[in-house]
């Protein structure tokens, strides 16, 4: 750590936190007798808490965000310089960093052309949903308004985004939800028996899983379905990569029924899977792409909804109609810190070859996890892409019965006792919060990767023997 807190400072910070801060995704009852963790500093892939303990962060800020690591002076300086010049103006006007980042981003996204700025992944997805609904009214008398989403996928925590949420436990107690959102089956080959497709594997399974989407479309009526929203790699639902054959068939189905394809890259975007965007592994062309977390690596709040020129043109084809434009605003979409940080973030990824490093270190981590799978029968499946990986824990490989989630959480705690932070699926799928999650920063070294998986090895032995 570069700086220290004296005991009085620490006491004041902890007291203030316990008295006034409502933390995310956590039960606060234990804080009546213990202290919350307060992260006070970060450098590279390490962070330090209020007690001076060093942690190796294998989840990039807890939720897959700090792609280029902590303490990047060039990003901080870019934000400072921009804020001194202009901190904000509503996005009804433009800004220098907003224009320049949009240009640079579109260079990485062939086929896309327009960037709509906002301030969170949930909001970015809602912007796409609103565009789909407005297009339905403009072109189809409001009928082609339904939005399909996939079981286990997650698209945000606002009520509209949760209406497209495929994680039943995360959605529990927050309904009723918005109408017009329809679920399609997951594409998880490890649990293909849930789909009645246990007789298929590989590409045959991938095509069949995509065909299940077509069945839903035909059931609902193709003339009522406006869009299909999918994660390129399902994140909080278990780190699931679709098998070969799935994505080409999805694209084919969307074109057949004139359904807009919305790819949610909030987690996978900006290098997490070894390409700029996860969908670029699969040769598909989306109509909407949404992104947030890694866009500026957490150095400033920014999210983007990116679309094609064809979509953009639909909102200005009749300038005499006062309703014929996208009547929407995101207040903090006008902040200039976000695109300034995003430009510097993207430059670091390019200059340091972090896409290639992500691929190489992802392969190393996958191999390490597969070696652990051979050693520990409790690991039923290892999967993922780049530096976005998961290990599903089961009581029995034959039945694939998930371990009790308290045991999965105990593994996370034992890894933490060794000074490494990993994740686990959390209040997502009822009875199936059993997947360990890994998303170290794109700067990870071989030593970092080995330290993470070594800690998991020790933890699995302690919890399961």
Placed side by side, the strands forming the largest sheet appear as 4-12-11-10-7-5-6
CATH superfamily of the largest domain: Type I PLP-dependent aspartate aminotransferase-like (Major domain)
Q: Tell me the strand percentage band.
A: 15-25%
Helix fraction?
Answer: 25-40%
**Helical/strand content category:** alpha/beta
- List low-pLDDT spans: none
CATH topology of the largest domain, anyone? Aspartate Aminotransferase, domain 2
- CATH classification class of the largest domain: Alpha Beta
CATH architecture field of the largest domain? 3-Layer(aba) Sandwich
Largest sheet: 7 strands, mixed
Overall 3D form: globular
User: Could you state the oligomeric state of the chains shown?
Assistant: single chain
Which radius of gyration do the C-alpha atoms yield?
22 Å
- Write down the overall mean pLDDT: 96
Return the domain count. Answer: 2
Count of alpha and pi helical runs = 14
How many β-strands, per DSSP? 18
Termini distance?
Answer: 36 Å
Organism: Phaeobacter gallaeciensis
Protein name: Taurine--pyruvate aminotransferase
Family: Belongs to the class-III pyridoxal-phosphate-dependent aminotransferase family.
InterPro entries: Aminotrans_3, Aminotrans_3_PPA_site, PyrdxlP-dep_Trfase, PyrdxlP-dep_Trfase_major, PyrdxlP-dep_Trfase_small
